[in-house]
Amino acid sequence: MSGKGSVRFQRVVRKHGDFIALKGIDFDIRPGEFFALLGPSGSGKSTTLRLMAGLDKPTEGQIFFDGHDVTSLDAQDRDVAMVFQSYALYPHMTVAQNIAFPLEMAKLPKARIGAEVAEAARKVRIDHLLDRKPGQLSGGQQQRCALARAIVRKAGLFLLDEPLSNLDAKLRLETRAELKKLQRNLGVTTVYVTHDQEEALTLADRMAVFMEGEIVQIGSPAEVFARPNSLDVAAFIGSPPMNLMQAEIRDGVPCLAGHPLPVTAPVGTGGIVVGVRPSAVVVGDSGIPCTVDLVENLGDSGILDLTFDGGTARARIGDPTLFAEGQRLHMSFASRDIHLFDAVSGRRLGQDAP
Ligand SMILES: Nc1ncnc2c1ncn2[C@@H]1O[C@H](COP(=O)(O)OP(=O)(O)OP(=O)(O)O)[C@@H](O)[C@H]1O
Ligand SMILES: [Mg+2]
Predict the structure, then answer these.
(1) Using the 8-state DSSP alphabet, how is residue 265 labeled?
(2) Could you give a GO molecular-function term held by this entry (predicted)?
C-alpha cells in the first residue's frame, strides 16, 4: 500500500532471547487512519509501536512507510512523533519551551518557532498555560502539552502509547473526544495503543486485536464487535463481556438447558459454545428458566446475573428496580444475536451474519 502516512508490517517477528514477543504479524494502516492496537497486557502492543517508531528493530520481517522499506532506519530518520504513557516532559522547562524543543533541535528561526508553538498550544487548548512548568499542570494538561510537542513536529505518523492512562475517568473521556477531533482536523495517520476496549471502540477507524504476540482480528470496531472471529476476541470485546455458554446439540440444533435455540449448528461440528451479548438477552416469560442471583443498579440501567440449569449469564436491563434477587424468570435470544463458536478450536462458526 502506498500514499502518505501508510504503514505496512510484513511477517514481523520480535524475539527477546527465547521469548517471542511478536510471532510474525502482518497488517496495513491506511493514510489518515486512526488505527488502534488493542489487547491484554503483555500481548505485544508496545513492542509493535516501538518497532514502528524505530526505537527497536524486528528480529525478522519488514516494515514499510508509504511503500518504502524503513526496517533498518533509526528513529530520528523516520517521520514519526511518539507520545508515551508517561509524558516525558522536561520539568525545568516551561510548557512553551517543551513544545518548542523539537523545533529548536531542528534549528528553526525563532519567530517561526514562536508561531508554531502558539498554534499547536491553541489546538490542544493550553495556550493560556505556556509560561507554566509541567509540575504546575494537571495530568490532562501535561498530556496535551506532550501532544502539542508531537504536533509541532508535523510528522507523517503519530504514535500514541496509552496516552490517557494516567488521567482520571472524567478527564479521560474529555481528552478522548478532543483527541479524536484533533486527529480528524490534522488528518495524520495515528496509531494508538490501548488495553481499554472502550477507547479503541470509540476512537479507532480500524483496530488490530492482539493476543499473545499475534494479531487475532483486524477490522472496524463495529465489525469486530458484531462478528468476533474467536472465543478469545468475543470474551475480550464488550462490557460486560459476551455470555459464552456451552450448548448441547440435539438433531443439529444447539440447546441450552434442554431448550432449542433458533439457529442450526453447522454439520460435523463437535462441541459448540453459544455467545450472546448481555444487551441481547431478553428476560421475560418465555425461553430458558433462570433465577436472578444479583441485580446491579448502574443508575440509568442495570445488569442481572442469572443462573440456569447448566450455566450462568448476564443480562443488561433498562430498569433494575423491576427485578429482585431470587426472582425466577425466563431468558431468550433472537437468532441474529446468537454467535456460535467451535468449543475446541474457539473459532467462529459460519452462520447467518448477526
Ligand atoms: N526487553 C525485553 N526483554 C524480554 N521480554 C520483553 C522485553 N520487552 C518486552 N518483553 C515482553 O514482551 C511481551 C510483550 O510486551 P509489550 O510491552 O509489547 O506488551 P503490551 O501489549 O504493550 O502490554 P501492556 O498493556 O502491559 O503495556 C511481554 O510479555 C513482555 O514481558
Ligand atoms: Mg504496553
Answers:
(1) P
(2) ATP binding
Q: Which atom of ligand 1 is nearest to the CA of 213?
A: 14
C-alpha cell at 37: 492496537
> In whole angstroms, what is the distance from residue 256 CA to residue 303 CA?
21
43 lines ligand 1 (CB under 6 A): yes
354 or 36, higher pLDDT:
36
CA of 180 to the centre of ligand 2 (A): 21
Q: Which residue has the cell 489487547?
A: 39
The H or E element that residue 141 is part of is helix 139-152
Are 280 and 240 in contact, with CB atoms under 8 Å apart? no
Q: In 10 A of CB 352, how many CB atoms?
A: 9
CA distance linking residue 339 with residue 335, whole number of Å: 9
pLDDT in tens, 13-36: 999 999 999 999 999 999 999 999
Q: Could you tell me if the CB of 208 is within 6 A of ligand 1?
A: no
Decide which of 55 and 173 is more confident. Answer: 55
**C-alpha cell, 118:** 502558539
C-alpha neighbours within 13 Å on the C-beta side of residue 25: 33
